[in-house]
Write a structure and sequence with these properties.
Two copies of one chain form a homodimer. Chain A has 369 residues and is of the alpha/beta class. Chain A contains twelve helices and 13 strands. Chain A has a seven-stranded mixed sheet with strand order 2-10-9-8-5-3-4, with helices on both faces. Chain A has a four-stranded mixed sheet with strand order 1-12-13-11. In chain A, α2 crosses α9. Chains A and B meet through α1, α2, α3, α4 and α9 of A and α1, α2, α3, α4 and α9 of B. Chains A, B: It comes from Desulfamplus magnetovallimortis. Chains A, B: Belongs to the class-V pyridoxal-phosphate-dependent aminotransferase family. Chains A, B: Its cofactor is pyridoxal 5'-phosphate.
Amino acid sequence: MNNLLDDIQKITLMGPGPSCVDDSVLNAMAKDTIGHLDPAFIKIMDTMKGQLKTLLHTENQLTIPVSGTGSAGMESCFVNLIEKGDAVLVLINGVFGMRMQDVATRLGADVDTLEFEWGTPVIVDDVKKQIAKKAYKIVAVVHAETSTGVKNPVAEIGALVKGSDTIYLVDAVTSFGGIEITMDAWGIDVLYSGTQKCLSCPPGLAPISFSEKAVAAIKQRKTKVPNWYLDLTMIMNYWAGATRAYHHTAPINMLYGLYQALYLILEEGEDAVYKRHMDNHLLLVDGLKEIGINMLVDESCRLPMLNSVHIPEGADDAAVRSRLLKEFKIEIGAGLGPLAGKIWRIGLMGHTARPENVEKLLTALKKVL
Amino acid sequence: MNNLLDDIQKITLMGPGPSCVDDSVLNAMAKDTIGHLDPAFIKIMDTMKGQLKTLLHTENQLTIPVSGTGSAGMESCFVNLIEKGDAVLVLINGVFGMRMQDVATRLGADVDTLEFEWGTPVIVDDVKKQIAKKAYKIVAVVHAETSTGVKNPVAEIGALVKGSDTIYLVDAVTSFGGIEITMDAWGIDVLYSGTQKCLSCPPGLAPISFSEKAVAAIKQRKTKVPNWYLDLTMIMNYWAGATRAYHHTAPINMLYGLYQALYLILEEGEDAVYKRHMDNHLLLVDGLKEIGINMLVDESCRLPMLNSVHIPEGADDAAVRSRLLKEFKIEIGAGLGPLAGKIWRIGLMGHTARPENVEKLLTALKKVL
């Protein structure tokens, strides 16, 4: 029988994720599967919680990877906190803010939104005015809006919410591992991420972290969490409880991969990793400018790991991306929503953020355009 | 830095899952990550749908792996079908029937149960009487009850439900890949499974299949599916839609693993795989009998892949399992719920179901007891 896996080619992944994965992470995933209750596996779980806490700069005990992709992380944060009628404010300036709104609405929350132009950041003063008008159980924002390349002022919004009863919930899917996140100092109560962006692990897991205030909110629920699979009160017993009570079978080999990906970041050093992202971002921006390609987002709020660029006049969006993939083995991302056909999204996430990849893309673009 | 992955030892996994994984499946997971919208990946997805349909003996278009473990499969089946107040009948004779009840109740269903003694099968006549009394939207049963080792009469219950408006929902987590499932012939409308049992892939994915009748039920919902991550109306667009619209980033490398695991089963041949499970089960039962260990479940409804045995008098449950793991690198499972401390659960799932493993366990048990 023909085996399709034999045809898989190495692609330089410069889209909005997945990013390039180091061989040591791929090899970690190929280690022998052991039991989810094996003491050797429990030790890996415990160490992984520590890795995540170190990189997020948090003391939160409930800091674990959820068994699903980044969107499962989003789902788990909202479903554990929301009960019918809870007031939620979602700040929207791209696809992932909209997704938060959709998730919270489906769960029966009373959702208000503040919307900002795609490609621009959330305006802190507007948030200040809104939360002065109404008491929210949750204020939610995306740190790195993957659909536009904008960095939102997460620390500044956190300063507004700090000390109140409101739970501050942040989407760190694209930011985690690429730019600084100091969860506790910024007053973030709840955070979720994904593995396939700046952590450079294949997709499949969603690191989350809940502050004591957020855990207390789960415990004060009047109704059971309506999602058994993502019920953190039970998942906590497996990840941190004295008895390690089985909930669902953990995705063992995916967790090996995440352990190794976090190991690599800690080995290289957090600051060095962030600097590598920024250096390569600047290299890319300069190189693109030389060939007449301009950035969508203002320098003041540009993400280093997700570079949205205007598609040059006369270039065929899909044809260029297809040629890059087929002829040059480079993947870049298309625009989403109102930006479809107008921008490309060039990722420099995690392991991808290296000068040789920037050069490779620039060389290819020169040939294709 | 010390790397915990260096300490992982090869364990013969003879518990209730995960099972032993073939090297080719582990190596598949270590293949280079490619994009979730890459045409090469779409081709793998399409082929995988075919592999699953072949093994489940179904024509269901909606036959895909969900991005989570087996319990996410359970969650996705119930959450897509249930709206508040829907009448659901759950047949319970073990932990996983109870879990179904919990999942459906959290979703606001009007749940009735029929309970049967753990270690015995569901009684078809009782089901017949109950469904004559009340019209149910869903009747749900576990095919292979992993907590007891009992095979439930799935085909016989299906015959009762067939032709009615009721949706017949079957948990095939432990049965799929180890015993025959002819989904369409048996009248199963909705089925979910997991990868870490008889498919012998690491945990992390949940194959599901929905009949046209079940898909129509999703489309007739009055309310949106309250779980964004598992909303099949959107996931279908990615797995089968003409545009392949992005929903969430698929767990690429896990899917490589599942593709390879299904490839191996199809290569060996479905009947040969089932025969291998049965042959090794009989070998194990004989060998256990010789050393005075007796089966919990009557021969008429015993599962070949999950063998529940009475813990011999005088044996220390935890100490024996711990010695098997540490000294002999063999994992077997403990009892759950009312059977904790009373039984061991010996798995012969997928790649584990081989004579050398049976011999290895029997030899070890003789030494330890």
